[in-house]
Each structure stands twice: as structure tokens, then as C-alpha cells.
Amino acid sequence: MAPVTLAAVAAHFGRDMDRGVSKVVGIIESAARDGVDLLVLPDACLGGYIGDFAAPDPDDPPPALDPDGPEIAAVIAAAGKMTVCVGYAESAPGGARYNAAVCVSGDGVLGTYRKVHQPAGEALTYLAGDAFGAFDTPVGRVGMLIDYDKTFPEAARALAVDGAHIIAALSAWPASITDRASRLPADRQSRLFDLYDCARAAENQVVLVSSNQTGVMGKLRFLGQAKVVGPGGDILATTRSKGGMAKAEIDVEAEIARARKVLNHLAELRPDTYRAKSVRG
């Protein structure tokens, strides 16, 4: 494939759904003018995230959306030829919701995902997903993760084994709650966010496009740090702790082939050995 332009967004999104949809559409239109082929927006950009891990406000949950409803339809209509990933709360039976992501183009839905790994307290607001899978898009085979998922190597590995060459990691990732630093770049979670992004790309030799929320929601202060990471774990573009769009042009297939030319991590896996067993000294 020819080089493509990949972009990750760092921005604030709150509860106001009309404003959120309008902001998403505006960002898509701006990205289209910049020639972006894949745009990854943050987790919960349609309706906002919870405001507290320990005790989410039961009276202020993210609004649960119908995947076939007008909000996702507006994103599809705006996407045109672009591939766009957005995060939202997907409605489930009984008034429940999933922390979910959808990948679309102007032709419709290309892939969906429900967040599997839940940090402390999130289960009070969201149901957990139970599967990882990659899907084909105009920019290549893509898989999606949602914030805390990137902490677990198995999640990104499952997508890579399923053929994903691009991982879209959508986040609403906050600064540390228990040991908050005075400056975001010095925060422990800021370091971990970047570390996980680079590690997941390098260990799977894939391209990772990482978005995140900014600003404040309840007791949570989000980090930003949207970025595009190459298959060697190198950061190709980043917003750092500010809002904006990290954008990089890359020949995904060529760069992955180059990264895997000598050491091909997926081809050299030994899954039969990855289990604990007693060892006699």
C-alpha cells in the first residue's frame, strides 16, 4: 500500500451530546482538509467519561447511545473517504452500557469493540466486553483498544495475531489519583501512558495510533499525549500534554516489513511454553 496519513486527537469532550457530535464532525472536517486517512478520536468523545473511578456518580452516567442512532450516523456522514474511530457508551439491555468504540467510513461501520479490562470502579458504570478482533479498512487491517486495555500485553497481542497492522488505542486516561504531580508531564500515569503505547507497538511490530481526552471530568484530569508510534516503538508525532492532533505519514506495510525483516516477533512466538510450571533446582 502507499503511504497513509494517520492522526490521533487529544481534546476534551463532556456530557453535552449535541456539542460533542458537532465537535467530532468539525475535527473530522479539519482532518479531511489536512489529508488524513485514519483519524482516531478519544474514548468517550460522544457523551464524556465517568468523573470518578472509586465512586462514579450514579446520577451522571455517560449517555447510552444506540449504535444505529443519529450520533454515529452523523460521524459516518462526515467521514467520507476517511477511516474514523470514535468512543462512546453503547446502550445495552436493562439500561446498562458498554464503554465502546466504533470504526467507520462514509460507507458505514467497519468494526466495533467493547472495552474488556476495567479499572477500579468502572464496573459500576459499564459492562465489560469479552473479545478482541481485527477488521479490514481502507488503510489496512485495524484493531481497537480502549484505555486500560493497553496495560495488558495480551490485548494488543491478540489483535496483532489476528492480523492487525494498526492498533487504534482510544483513551480517557487521567493523571494519577493517589499520587498526583503538580505538572502533568511529571505524573506517574503520564510516563506509563507513553511507555505502554511504545511497548505495545514495539513488541508486536505494528503501528499504534493513540488518542486521549484532555481537561477535567469530575475528579479526573486527563493527560492528552495523543501520538502515532511506529513498529519499532518510536514516537513519530505527539501532542504532548496539550490538545491537538498528532499526525504522521507512514507506509504501514513497508515499515512493518522492515521491522520484521530479521526479528519477526509474531513468527517466533512459542505459545506452547507460556504457562507456569514448577522448576526443580
From TrEMBL:
Residues 4-252 form the CN hydrolase domain. It holds the Pfam family CN_hydrolase. It comes from the Bacteria. Transmembrane segments: none annotated. The keyword Cell inner membrane does not apply. The keyword Hydrolase applies. GO terms for molecular function: hydrolase activity, acting on carbon-nitrogen (but not peptide) bonds, in linear amides. Keywords: Hydrolase. This is Aliphatic amidase. It comes from Mycolicibacterium cosmeticum.
